[in-house]
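Incident log entry.

Two folding requests arrived from the same account within the same minute. Monitoring flagged them as a possible duplicate submission, but the sequences differ. Recording both here for audit purposes.

Request one:
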Amino acid sequence: MKHASILFFLLGLVATFQSCTSGKNALKQGDYYQAVSLAVNRLRQNPDHKKSKEVLKTSYQIAVNYLEQNAQNQITSNANFKWKNAVQSYEQINSLYEQIRTSPGALKIIPNPINKYKELTEVKNKAAEESYEAGIQAMLKNTRDDAKRAYFLFTDVNAMSPGYRESIEMIEQAKFNATIKVIVEPTFTNYNNWNFEPVVFGVNPSQFVKFYTPREAEDANLTRVDHIVKVSVNGYNEGRPATTLRTDNYTDSVKVSEKTVNNQKIPVYEKIKAKMVTYEKVVTSRGSIVLYIRDANSGADLRNSDIIAEERWSERWAVCTGDARAIPEATRKLCGTKEASMPRDFLVARTKRELDNKLANVLSGFYSGY
């Protein structure tokens, strides 16, 4: 426990030094916000930390003035999304305000921290209006990429001013316009009754991709379909069991008694032998499917991939003769075991599971860029 206490103490010293050094470095580099944050955090842990007090006293007002001036510069500029940029500066001022309020040591140095909540509310309303109008303009371009941009703009609007105008409805509309709509054709009946539709619908590569059954697409009255996905089963083959054998001969010496020579006991060993015939039965399988992805409008193939899964089942048993003590312990446990049989449909299930995994990965990779 004593060593542990010393270790915690040393770690505390290291953390103190790093925090203090980081705060001073941030101040030297002109990162006043970071300098204040580090100093406040250190004073929360140690209210009497001298160097952090100095950093806080030096940097706080400079940080507030800098952020305030930055907000005003944005507001008076002609930059795109100037109000949104001003929001960030006011949020940082308020963040410092809340940090100081929750640090008694910092509050002694800055007893009246500054907040800009009133200004932030006004700027957020302007920023919401700014992003809303940009979202509308993006929607009017009527392209998928612009619809995606509009979605994020309207999302920003709702975050800055919840319920602003029709922002929620516009979020939904923009997302619908930006979403790739994919119809999944049913898997044809096959010998093993494999169905890959649940795998396709379980893939979630992007919030802008949605899979539909033909019936769902019809019920939704889709005016536009982008892709059609189909999975065809090529086949499944399972080999006949193949058995091989291996013969090993072992020799060893074991102590059987002791004899006394010159008043000393000497162990007496006896050589022992054993023979081990090890059998291994192996069954292999191979399943394959084809993934088709085609453009619903042009009919062009976007993806035509063979997906293959190969699996293997094996089991060993052994017949041992002679003195089993001569056989290494690691393999001796096989002695006397009986010939095993593969569980029914074992490889069928394993192969299907591997095809499921590979299909999901291929679909996720293809649609992740959408």
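Request two (distinct sequence, not a duplicate):
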Amino acid sequence: MMIGYVTIGTNNLDGAVKLFDDLFEIIGVQKLWQHGGMAAWGTSREDIALCVVRPFNGQPATLGNGNMVALRMKSRSDVDAIHAKCIALGGTNEGKPGPQGNHDFYGGYFRDLDGNKFNAYVPDG
């Protein structure tokens, strides 16, 4: 399976764009584009992207229980940095960075300003 992009909803596009601009800057990921009620971040248009959007149907963005976006990092220090940065920008902690489970997976869980859940991780910590 190939993932092209992941889309999460927002009720505050300006706030979400600022949060993700600031958050992803620390790991060298830039906004690829923004138009209308949508913006996307990634390393290139050929790689996987994260998109934030005002829902097309005009209804409020709500959380999907169990939905999460996992962001693969290059190092444990990147996991620690992006987790701390999101909290500093007003996000919430959903699980501090550290080893997870009975293997070398290292991850930190957080929610953005709209409550969307993320995991920053390195699979072999």
